[in-house]
Each structure stands twice: as C-alpha cells, then as structure tokens.
Amino acid sequence: MYSADIIIEALLNGLLTGAIYALVALGLTLVYGVLHIINFAHGALLAAAMFAVLFVNQILGLDPYVQIPLLAVIFFGLGYGLQRLVIGPASHGRDENILLVTLGLSIIIENLLLAGFGSDTRSLNTDYSFAVFEVGPYLLGQARVFGAAGALATAALLWLFLSRSDTGKAIRAVAREKIGASLQGISVGHVYAVTFGLGCACLAVAACLLLPTFYVNPRIGSAYVLVAFTIVVLGGMGSIVGAMLGGLIIGVVESMSGLFLGESLGQIGIFLIFILALLFKPTGLFGAKA
C-alpha cells in the first residue's frame, strides 16, 4: 500500500499534466463550439507543432518556452489559411464534408512528417526537463509546473479574448446563431477561420509546453487527440470551462491509474471515465442538451 505522501504527490503531478492536456482539448472544443464539427486533423496538427518546436530548437537554439509567441502566430496563420482556403471551400457547406476533409488533412500531415523527419521517436532535453521543485515532502517536475502555469495563463487569455474583444463577441455570436450573426453583418467565413486559427494556436502553445517532458513522433498526435476527445466529452462539447476542468480530472485519473496499475496501464482509467460519461452524463459536466 502506498503512503499518503506518494498518493498526494501523484495527485499533484496529475493536476499539472492535466492542465496541459486541457490546453490541447481547448482547441478541439473551441472549434466544435463554433463550427459544430470534430476536427480530425487536431492530433496531426499537434504533432506538426511539436516537430516545429524541435526544428526551431535545433536550428536556432531557442528554448521551447521562448518559441511560444512565434509558433502561436505561425500556427494561427496556418489554421486560418487551412479553414479559409481548404476546409471551407472543399466542404461546400456540408458538415460531413468537413469531417472528411479534416480526416484527409490528418493523413497528409502525418505522411509529410514521416517523409520529412522519419519514424524515429525524438525528445528535447533542457536544463529543467528533469529538475524538480521540492515542496515540503513532495517533488514536482519543474517542466510540469511551468507547463501547467503556461496552460492556465493561455486559457485565461483566451477567455478574456472571447469575452471582451469585438472579435471574441463575434465568435460567440456565430457559435450561438450563425444566421442571425450574418444578418448583423458578421462575416461567418472569417469567424470560422479565426476560430480554427485560435485552435491551432492553442496546439502550438501546448506543443511548446509538452516537449520538455514528452517525446514526439509523426503519429503521436493520435494518442493526445484521444485524451483530448475524452476531456471534451467529459467537460461538455463546446465548453471552455468544461475543457479545463475535464483536463484536470483526466490528468489526475491517468496519474492515479499509473500509480496503482502501472504506467503501461495508466490510460485505462481515462477510457473508463469516457465510457461512464457517455452512459450517465452524455452532455458532459458543462454541456447543454441539443
């Protein structure tokens, strides 16, 4: 039986990891909340962002955290362009077409990463990758602490943007009633592209926060997107608050499952939560009925 200190330490580390998971899920739930579709390219775009962090570090020697503003802007532009120039025109206004287009993009991005970087698993070591903070009897990884702080700060900035800025108000208007928003002079196509760009920017920030402690390969995105989708279902489709709370819960569940069942079985708890949420609370913690 584990001591209370070990359990509490696992709980704290789970919360730290869960905050970064929540940031990955935030982009997914934001796109769903406005466009009302699941972005199947979400995981592949995260993998691309992680390789971008690795590439910039190797070429320019920039620390992952220093890259956050640069990559956030680049991936916002990439997401905006993909929605405006590829996903929107190819979908012809049909949601089922959007799903197929994003699935196709996922396959293309993964294969481009395989062609460009090979199938090897890579990691990025920094001075703080294996350093810890001693908080009483507990040891907390510095990179996890920095990552959680960055994720929470990003979520707070996104919430302020959506609630206070004119563009954020336009996004919320389109999410609620796109026809009414269009009649008020809001460009729905532009709002869709901005929303998709914000989702990709969240992925870029998450990649910068993940890479000091996690590895990357061209197919790593599928593992994260499964966790992100579980978080979105648990928190409520389209709910930003739900995504953050769901991420923290999933981080704790994964950490505790890894502690008691072993690291290789750590994700069993995640998918058990997923099944229970679908059975007993399909709208999620903060979701609304259709």
From TrEMBL:
In its UniProt entry, the species of origin is given as: Jiella endophytica
Q: List localization entries.
A: Cell membrane
> Which GO BP terms, alphabetically?
amino acid transport
Keyword annotations of the record? Amino-acid transport, Cell membrane, Membrane, Transmembrane, Transmembrane helix, Transport
Q: Name one GO cellular component term.
A: plasma membrane
Similarity-based family? Belongs to the binding-protein-dependent transport system permease family. LivHM subfamily.
Q: Name one GO molecular function term.
A: transmembrane transporter activity
Membrane topology summary: Multi-pass membrane protein
- Which InterPro entries does this one have? ABC_transp_permease (IPR001851), BCAA_transport_permease (IPR052157)
Q: Where are the transmembrane segments?
A: 6-33, 40-60, 66-86, 98-118, 138-162, 191-216, 222-253, 260-280
**What name does this protein carry?**
Branched-chain amino acid ABC transporter permease
